[in-house]
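Input chain follows. Return structure tokens only.
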Amino acid sequence: MMDNTIKFTVPGDDKQDMRRILRTVFDALNEKGYNPINQIVGYLLSEDPTYITNYNNARSMIVKLDRDELLQELVRCYLFDKK
């Protein structure tokens, strides 16, 4: 059994698509009266798409994203993006 760490890479254009989709999902959840942060975190932890509303095709959009890549990008932005 190999115990190697796998390195993931996220291409540049995919980051913009990921950001656009996440923003669209956030906005759809917010418009429907949900707490978008809680719902997105619930989805990311469970991979249960029912955390995400169907409104504005938000659910079908977020399931197209690779959760591992999304989590990686969120951590990278949290740690390294300067505000």
